[in-house]
Design a protein that fits this description.
The chain has 211 residues and is of the alpha+beta class. 28% of the residues lie in helices and 34% in strands. The strands form two sheets. It has a six-stranded mixed sheet, with helices on both faces. A two-stranded antiparallel sheet has the order 5-6.
């Protein structure tokens, strides 16, 4: 059977999807501990770097990872009202001639931090709005919004919150919350990955939206 070397876009997406599965399993098994969004960013970036370097197939191929990448937006968003954005994780594969990148925005909501679920749900939509703006600026770019929580309330499709991100829900267009507004040009369906643990009564809930 004849095979072709995957192009940079295929490799970037495979790196992220493989690393995401590893992250989910390591958190759910207790192999790594995540205390806040910064530690989630650190743990995920370590996995991405380890996996990403394996995809440098040809001599000139280079994998690159950058945290908190500064991006100048063309217009304001609710999250980046001054048009200055910071992307949580930015990945690239390049060879001197060609480059393909991926932007990842992360969210982590810990149950013990309190039930501010409406604001937290809105912040996920803000991340997606920013990602759409990144997509306009960079031609060869994949975008990912990744969320981890131990709070089952986020994944319930029958939530009474007027911002519902539960299993199977979809968001598109203008969403308003407490005089704050996001506009999503595309439609996004929320499908959660659920993990249980032998060592805990809590579940582990992960969301990955890509475009």
């Amino acid at each position: 059977m004849e095979h072709n070397i995957p192009n940079f876009q295929e490799r970037i997406n495979e790196i992220i999807n493989t690393s995401y599965k590893i992250l989910c399993n390591k958190i759910a098994s207790g192999n790594i501990d995540v205390y806040n969004e910064a530690s989630l960013q650190l743990q995920f970036s370590v996995i991405l770097k380890s996996i990403g370097q394996l995809y440098e197939y040809e001599i000139k191929d280079r994998f690159e990872i950058e945290l908190e990448k500064k991006i100048d937006l063309e217009s304001k968003t609710w999250k980046s009202n001054n048009q200055k954005a910071r992307c949580d994780i930015w990945l690239s594969i390049y060879n001197g001639k060609n480059r393909y990148s991926a932007a990842i925005e992360l969210k982590y909501f810990k149950k013990s931090q309190g039930e501010t679920t409406t604001d937290n749900r809105f912040s996920i939509l803000c991340d997606i709005e920013n990602l759409e703006h990144y997509k306009k600026l960079f031609q060869n770019l994949s975008c990912y919004s990744i969320v981890y929580t131990d709070n089952v309330n986020y994944i319930r499709s029958n939530s009474s919150s007027y911002i519902n991100i539960g299993e199977g829900t979809t968001h598109h267009g203008k969403i308003i919350s407490n005089n704050r507004e996001v506009i999503l040009n595309n439609s996004y369906t929320f499908s959660w990955d659920i993990y249980s643990s032998k060592n805990s009564n809590n579940g582990f809930y992960f969301l990955k939206i890509s475009f």
